[in-house]
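Design job #97: recover the sequence.
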């Protein structure tokens, strides 16, 4: 039972900070505990990377456009803020991989690129006969020795399935999530389940086949779509959260510059407007470089300074449907590095999310920039538009200019979980807990980049705060 009044500051008004604020306020209301909550956001708006705009009847996401339905925290939060009736699943359809200038249908049964069905894999033009034979070696290869060490996604998949499957299928798919370098990203921090499959079944192909949903449920799942969003755009979740947070004091357009410890139980925050705030606990829900800068005294946060992020841009182009001379049936494609293309992915948003687009119109949302290919993002809007249109023209024969284009640059926005990320994070958290108990780091830089992961991380920070308070009360 927490008896005293407590003061918590949340730094960062992205989905992580907002979720932390929401679950802390909920606790305060349900348990009738007096918790003073302040959320400080550097920009003049809440939502961070979530940004929806509406234009000429279109709903366009500048950043994330949806979340994985199977990770339940996002759907749960949506329901809690009263937006359940706004939840919508994506329309399903054929997805493609662009390889050497040609679109190849995603082989049926491929789970993150791992084949679970034989015939689509045998007939696909994505791999040469030798590449297919190499991938089939997974069926007989022994499991790797259990060392407990992390490894890169690339080395793991290359060993099991060979280079072709990795370069032509797995890499472009993963690139869509991390925009990263598959040979540097940590297996343990991104997809530990694949290592578990290898440990349990030895063969990835056999293991994924066994552990994937059976035929019947797979097809019903397919109809529904794996992703969810909100009819009015993800910003509606941000707006609903802001409205629900009636006991939270918001400070917008104010940056936290420094966090210092005043004594064991207390922290002092220096703000960009010259004011000082004192509090018992802080949830730091900012990207990792900002997080490390906030506590200059903590040299053990230097691994966060070294952590890399990738720069990308989203480019949404609206057309009349007559502009697409070659309208391909499907929902979009990802682009393998073995191509003379600049775009890295394209969603046919009007097909995947029909509610976003007026009748007779089309919206194509492309990505440019990924690890090693980020320079394009520094080009002018005109240049980016030209390059993207040239690429789209090669596939869909688009010769007219878009009705409008919205380019959003996301600099250093995609955190890269390098090999050893989990270990680094454990060490940072241990040192932080000893040096500055009551300060918690959360957000997309640490335990997952997806919106549901960020929500979980905000909620986990709240649980940690409450556990600490309860412990203090018992000990007192
Ligand atoms: C282009 C793009 C597309 C994506 N697509 C998807 C998708 O479809 N589905 C999905 O699940 N995920 C997607 N993601 C990932 C997801 O959007 C992010 O991981 C998530 O939104 C991050 O939320 P966050 O609150 O942790 O950080 P942010 O949204 O970055 O929020 C951090 C906030 O902290 C503030 N801040 C920073 N420093 C300070 C300071 N010193 N003082 C005060 N405030 C500060 C910033 O202004 C910002 O508002 C995408 C990401 C990008 C960039």
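Job complete. Output follows.
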């Amino acid at each position: 039972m927490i008896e005293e009044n407590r003061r918590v500051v949340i730094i960062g008004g992205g989905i992580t900070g907002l979720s932390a604020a929401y679950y802390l306020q909920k606790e305060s209301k349900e348990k009738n505990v007096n918790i003073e909550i302040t959320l400080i956001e550097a920009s003049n708006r809440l939502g961070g990377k979530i940004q929806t705009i509406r234009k000429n009847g279109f709903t366009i996401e500048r950043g994330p456009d949806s979340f994985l339905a199977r990770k339940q925290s996002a759907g749960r939060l949506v329901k809690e803020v009263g937006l359940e009736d706004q939840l919508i699943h994506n329309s399903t359809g054929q997805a493609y991989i662009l390889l050497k200038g040609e679109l190849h249908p995603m082989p049926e049964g491929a789970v993150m690129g791992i084949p679970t069905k034989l015939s689509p894999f045998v007939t696909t033009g994505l791999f040469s006969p030798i590449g297919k034979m190499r991938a089939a070696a997974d069926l007989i290869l022994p499991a790797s020795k259990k060392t407990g060490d992390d490894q890169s996604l690339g080395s793991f998949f290359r060993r099991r399935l060979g280079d072709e499957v990795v370069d032509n299928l797995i890499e472009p798919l993963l690139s869509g999530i991390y925009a990263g370098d598959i040979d540097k990203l940590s297996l343990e921090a991104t997809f530990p389940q694949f290592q578990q499959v290898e440990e349990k079944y030895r063969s990835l192909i056999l293991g994924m086949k066994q552990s994937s949903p059976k035929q019947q449920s797979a097809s019903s799942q397919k109809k529904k779509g794996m992703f969810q969003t909100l009819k009015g755009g993800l910003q509606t979740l941000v707006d609903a959260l802001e409205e629900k947070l009636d006991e939270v004091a918001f400070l917008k357009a104010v940056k936290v510059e420094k966090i210092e410890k005043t004594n064991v139980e207390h922290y002092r925050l220096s703000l960009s407007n010259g004011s000082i705030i004192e509090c018992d606990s802080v949830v730091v829900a900012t990207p990792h470089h900002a997080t490390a800068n906030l506590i200059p005294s903590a040299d053990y946060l230097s691994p966060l300074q070294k952590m890399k992020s990738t720069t990308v841009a989203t480019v949404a182009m609206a057309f009349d449907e007559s502009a697409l001379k070659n309208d391909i049936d499907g929902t979009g494609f990802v682009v393998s590095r073995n191509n003379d293309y600049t775009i890295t992915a394209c969603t046919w948003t009007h097909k995947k999310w029909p509610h976003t687009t007026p009748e007779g119109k089309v919206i194509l949302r492309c990505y440019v920039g990924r690890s090693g290919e980020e320079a394009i993002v520094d080009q002018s809007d005109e240049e980016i538009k030209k390059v993207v249109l040239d690429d789209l023209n090669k596939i869909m024969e688009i010769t007219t200019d878009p009705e409008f284009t919205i380019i959003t640059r996301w600099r250093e926005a995609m955190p890269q979980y390098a090999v050893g990320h989990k270990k680094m994070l454990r060490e940072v958290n241990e040192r932080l807990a000893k040096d500055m108990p009551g300060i918690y780091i959360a957000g997309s830089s640490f335990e997952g980049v997806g919106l549901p992961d960020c929500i979980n991380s905000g909620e986990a920070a709240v649980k940690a705060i409450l556990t600490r308070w309860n412990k203090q009360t018992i000990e007192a």
